[in-house]
Amino acid sequence: MQEAVVSGSVFSVRKFLAALLILVAIGSGDAQAHQPVVLLDTDTSAAKGPLLVDGTVSFAIRASFTKKAQKKAFRGQFNAGDALTVQYLIADKKPENTLLTSALPVLVITSPTGKSVTVKMTERTKFHEPFSRTNYLYLARYSAVAQGGIYSFTITSKGKAHITVAVGDKEIFGAILRGAAPTPTPTPTPTPTPTPTITGYTMAQVKANSSTKNCWAVVDGYVYNLTNWINSHPGGSGAIVSLCGTDATAAFKSKHENQNRPAQTLDSYKLGPLQK
Description:
Elements lengths: L4 E3 L5 H7 L2 E4 L5 E8 L12 E2 L6 E7 L2 E11 L4 E9 L14 E5 L5 E3 L6 E5 L4 E12 L3 E10 L2 E7 L8 E3 L24 H6 L7 E4 L2 E4 L11 H5 L4 E2 L1 H8 L3 H8 L2 E4 L3
Parallel strand pairs: 3-5, 4-6, 15-17
Antiparallel strand pairs: 1-14, 2-3, 4-14, 5-13, 6-12, 7-11, 7-13, 8-9, 8-12, 10-11, 15-16, 16-18
């Protein structure tokens, strides 16, 4: 069954940045806030990966690999003449900062016409992200004038590694689509855009992701991938681990009902609705 899930909701940008976002410094020294997107193990090709509906909106694509030759990918939609801006980053801590450039995953960008560019890693520029008190390293920065259409971003590992690919520079809320890309209307006459069919996730899928490596949970009828929250949860990892593979609605509300920040943090890990 094909899963097409549109994720995204309105939230307080200032609070969200303080809790989660990577601040990516551009050459001018100004900080840019990137909305996080975690690539799943099932995102093995651009067609299967998430679509950034507007590739000029700032997104931080996080990809983790456990072995050589793994692939993870995503897509970004651009209008002709848009700025295509991409940065390749790693955390400035072991083991990532000890890896040689030749041992890090390869990022290939493919245009709508099929032309591919391999992003070259030519720097290791340090910067400090104050909200999570984390140090990062720029490895590469790529920019170009975009063609109209959908770009593919494919990351191929050379071993165990965790990286971030930052795309876009507009600090506004952006939509993410999982599933097939929307089909352009062939006629120039404006017509209503059909609402994508939301198939959602099953409880069986949630129960199958009940480990610290893949931790999914349900809250209020939506499925969340909490894997990356395990080690960053202020109340300790155990509180999140206990929710893996379960309907965690009651547990979450008993601790955080009517609290904005935990709700906003949770929302950033949303995968989509639970099938009824």
